[in-house]
Amino acid sequence: FLITTGYLYGLFGTLNMADIAEKARVMEDTTPIFTLAVLYFVSFSMKAAAFPLQSWLPASYHTPRFVTSALFAGLLTKVGVYAAIRVLLMLFPPERAEMAPLFAWVAALTMIFGALGALAQSDLRRFLNYAVIVGIGNIMVALALPAAGPGEGGMALSVGLSGAILYAVHSIVVMTALYLAAGVAAHLAGTSSLHEMGGLWRNNPLFAALMLVLLFAVSGLPPFSGFWPKVALVQATISGDLPWLAASILVSGFILTIASARVFALGFWRSLPAAVAAETPAEREAIVAERFTAAGPEKALSAIPLLALCSFVVVAGVWPQWLLDLTDAAAGGIIDPAPYIASVFGGVR
Asked: What is the pTM of this model?
């Protein structure tokens, strides 16, 4: 990223994004802007954990404390994909359009790889690591959409970019909440291994219900916040003549739904397995119940952030229009940067 930014400064003589957006249109045929676009995409893909540069994320996000992983999963990977959208769509739109087929394959493979990885996990934290990757693939779909075309195809980019931004907002909230909820579940069960968890639904139905809502949301099921951005992305890919990419969105969501159902069935719904420790299942369930009641006032205070995040997931799913209005405006500002450029230079150039 730093090497590419130094290269960009050498070509344009500025790091002001509004200035670069204007100069890139004039210098398009005289500078290697395509090289810049490729290098930026590679660096941002590393940051976002997009295929095939994703292997660092599932190997690292399960090692910090749950609250630290919640911050990482909620924000850090989104920085990479946001930067890719901002730089490639606003600064280098012709090069982005030329690279769109590559972006489509990267997005599809990121979604499918993440979903299959989530299905293969036997640890709750590692499952969430791969769920983060699925979300990155969905957001990257916006880079693959055509900017113009006949009929509805001309609206594909604006609809898809709005859906991608909405998905990013949803992913920030739901992944943060899922890591926090996973931390609570691991504390109660004494482990994050799905082979050793169980019985949580019986001891605290409210907490289990919150976890189920979050798993539904991350899978893109209605009526929760993950549903509407996927609707927008599927609509955009179909109108942009990319039905196979729309199928990738749906297939990855279906696989992630199966993986989420497996997590809830093993970790929450079933009784504790008899062979996980020397204690009997009844004794282990008594230990879990004791952990629920031992926290006292601290338990109620720690539940406030989780309840607030879950409330957003439900409200954004039942009443999404206020968010769609915001993301539509954000998408318009990226596709047409003229107002942004005018605001930076005060309308005087």
From this structure: 0.88
